Amino acid sequence: MNPYSKQEILEEDIQAVVKDLKNPILTGGSTVDLFETKIAEYVGAKYAVVFNSGTAALHSAYFVAGLKENDEFITSSMSFVATTNGGVYLGGNPVLVDIKFDGNIDVSKIEEKITSKTKLIAPVDYAGNPCDIEEIMKIGKKHNLIVVEDGSHSLGSSINGKKIGSIADMKTFSFHPVKPITTFEGGAVTTNNKEFYEKLKKFRSHGVVKKSLWNQDMEDLGFNYRLSDVPCALGISQLRRLDSFIKKRNLIGEYYDEALKDLKEISTVRIKENRVSGRHLYPILLDRSLWCSKEDIFQKLQEKAIGVQVHYKPIHKHSFYRQKINKSFSNAEDFYKAEISIPCHQSMSLDDAKEVVETLKEVFNTQGVSCVR
Ligand SMILES: *Cc1c(COP(=O)(O)O)cnc(C)c1O
After folding, report:
1. What pLDDT was estimated at residue 368?
2. Which is nearest to 132 in space by CA: 123, 122, 120?
3. Which of 23, 57, 99, 232 is the most buried (most CB within 10 A)?
4. pLDDT tens-place string over residues 335-346
């Protein structure tokens, strides 16, 4: 099965892990500091703080942004549930915004959602394609709101030649194996704000600060969200190859753009000229006439060893959120009916991509049923 995304582990990654495992300090050591320095340098931000998951990174960033019980936070209806969960842990209420048909938040619909209870805006870079972060920052500044960008998909993506990760007040990343680089599980927040940086570190480690000698003081209720040294060694090794991963993902993405452009059954998402997407996902969007056959198409592709997946069931469609958010978002709902993510990652070849295209054509040709309603 060729999965929709996966990690690439080479001998050099294994050596980096083994070497670090022999260090006397296994957590809270210098490999953590070094990985943070490398991430900050890579994205062009002043600070980076690593966490033991992307979800922990989001929870921490929302806490540091000041999100409290009954505050509202604005985010996209098309994301993984972790984007909203991070705020719900703090007692916040998610306020969803509909998307454009590229999977990213519709910026023109953000301002109408702002109330006196709004604390922050949390856009997502869907599939690695950077959202309109500059416009969102303008809205944030105008209304005095902090912007926490969920960049779980987009480490290494750029706008106008500049890596994303230094524009939002805080930007979060995930190092889950399907994401741009991996530390097994892991995540990070990047920021240019020293106060945020210090609060993030405190929240990551029980809310405790060192005073003198043995004296520590717990100032806030924090968590143990630390990422240990060995995964950071893997992260450093992976980060060295991130640009080559993105190059490979774009080679495959551009091949798909071309090979699929005349297929009447689907459309694809075009990346704007001034952007580079890390292509965490390659979404194809089924023509409306095929929405009712999506399960069948999905199953046939899986049977033919094409490891497709769907990103995502809209947040408000999950039963936990259904009572909280009793609204509909038509683009997100339609996008969900149309979307299938096909394999796109650094561990596959152009021949594998060709195979995906041929299999798609085969499945559509034998599909037959069209069900316009
Ligand atoms: C993966 C992901 C997360 C959570 O990251 P974990 O490292 O799995 O905790 C959050 N938001 C989005 C959009 C993601 O894709």
Report:
1. 60
2. 123
3. 57
4. 999 999 999 999
